[in-house]
Amino acid sequence: MAWVVLVLSGILEAVWATALGRSEGLHRLVPSIVFVVALAASMGGLGYAMRTLPVGTAYAVWVGIGASLTVCWAMVTGTEPVSLVRLLLVLGIVGCVVGLKLVH
After folding, report:
1. Closest of 36, 35, 30, 40 to residue 18, by C-alpha
2. What are the helix (H) ranges across 1-104?
3. Contact at 8 Å (CB) between 66 and 43?
4. pLDDT score for 104
5. Closest Cα partner for 46 from 88, 14, 7?
6. pTM
7. For the segment 5-36, what is each residue's pLDDT rounded down to a tens digit?
8. Which of 39, 38, 43 is nearest to 58 (CA)?
9. Cα–Cα distance between 83 and 87 in angstroms, integer?
10. Phi-psi region for residue 26, left (φ > 0), alpha (ψ -120 to 50) or beta?
11. What is the pLDDT of residues 35-87, one digit of tens each?
């Protein structure tokens, strides 16, 4: 169960990071609310997962999922450029996250 919660928390990390970027310094109401709610839920889930998973593993997986999804979303929406190198680097992050799960 901790792994499921951790993955969902990583997804929420991408949500709050994207919302923070769209909030224009927390000056736009809806993205700011999404940021706060997603941040609280993401941190709560990370904390829950850390009760049974090692801190280093849980944090690395959480950050890896959040960072990968944030970059992918930015590339899909056109706010960041797409390149083969970027895609390969993101796949490297995903590979590391999968590796951490496999060795746990």
Report:
1. 35
2. 2-22, 29-49, 55-77, 84-103
3. no
4. 83
5. 7
6. 0.91
7. 999 999 999 999 999 999 999 999 999 999 99
8. 43
9. 6
10. left
11. 999 999 999 999 999 999 999 999 999 999 999 999 999 999 999 999 999 99
Torsion sign over Cα 71, 76, 15, 65: negative
Chain centre to alpha carbon of residue 100: 16
Residue with tokens 């609280």: 40
* Residue 41 tokens, joined: 């839920």
Residue 76 one-letter amino acid: V
Question: Within a 10 A sphere around the Cβ of 94, how many other Cβ atoms?
Answer: 16
C-alpha distances (whole Å) from 60 to each of 30, 50, 52, 68, 75 are 29, 11, 15, 12, 22
Closest of 63, 48, 50 to residue 94, by C-alpha: 63
